[in-house]
Design goal:
The chain is mostly helical and 423 residues long. Helix content is 75%, strand content 2%. It is built from 19 helices and two strands. The chain crosses the membrane at residues 36-54, 74-92, 104-122, 128-149, 161-182, 194-212, 233-252, 272-292, 299-320, 326-347, 354-377, 389-413.
Length: 423
Amino acid sequence: MNLEVKSTTELKALLIDAEVDDDVVQHTPPVVMRPWLLLLGLILVALNLRPALSSLSPLLAEVSQSLGLSAAKAGLLTTLPVLCLGLFAPMAPILARRFGAERVVLGILLTLAAGIILRSSFGEVGLFAGSLIAGASIGIIGVLLPGIVKRDFAKHAGTMTGVYTMALCLGAALAAGSTVPLSKYFGDSWTFGLGFWILPALAAALFWLPQVGHKHGAHQVAYRVKGLLRDPLAWQVTLYMGLQSSLAYIVFGWLPSILIGRGLTATEAGLVLSGSVIVQLASSLAAPWLATRGKDQRLAIVVVMLLTLGGLFGCLYAPLDGLWGWAILLGLGQGGTFSLALTLIVLRSRDSHVAANLSSMAQGIGYTLASMGPFAVGLVHDWTGGWNAVGWIFAVIGLGAIIAGLGAGRALYVQVTSEKLQG
């Protein structure tokens, strides 16, 4: 795989594809001087986009008991980070235009580290404030990555999206499976289990640092993209992103509690979640590659969503003897649904700055919508005193995702106009 731009001709063609004027070509260095270093940086950044979310759910009962949290507060704690993903996502393109995407990613990684340590060290106030900061940080970084992939790996967008999605799933799996054992190993302290995840965040910032010194050609000219909010296809991509994410964050936030309610221990429930997420590594890499081999992505969207729903209903209702089989099915489905959602942002965009703005819309509005899922699960559980009625939430969200995905999966581009900003 040759990811370097080796000639002025290739560079010019890439920049023209991004609608950059010819006079920029003469003064712009190669877009990716060290593609392997950028790839490593992307992987390490992606590894940090889920531990702050998936590390809490196996410890939720312990944290609630330790701090005296009510059921409503515990439900808010699972919803708040996801809501922040959506509310803060629109800041990403604004910050990128002002400071450059590479600098923003570095700064927000440090902010993420601060949020992680805050929520693990300062009681109830720190727990909520740190969760808010962590969710906001993840929301901003997550918006920027599809634009970077579209810009620097345009010819391998599907594969590269799968690679960093696979890294994202690995981070989620590691956090879900190891947080409880880490807490028990170090004095049975949930604060250490949550605070441990500052270390990979700082490591990612260290490896991302070289990117700040590189000038990436397509980001030397800033564009304002108009018309996304009036484009039906953009809304279909957004709804698919939001609805599939809602199911994902229900799993991150509530699946261990559901399984504990069915008789598993906290450690066992965390391992089931971890195992399910590990399975996502395979489908998150394979689904975009397979989906881009056909004429469009509609069939792939339906298949992965049906796998997801099958796994969810199995974990909720089927006998526990077959739980691991249902967890694997769930992982295969959710790895594919999320990686396809990110791939659709890239495939439905003509160039990198449209991808960045569509990413902002899809993740900003989509994650705000997604936050309602975990919140609804908490409310239904409080009202009914059990988990059986949650299946209706799964069914409604899953059906909505399929309908939106059938529109978003068509081989079309969003219809927008781009305006180059002066200065």
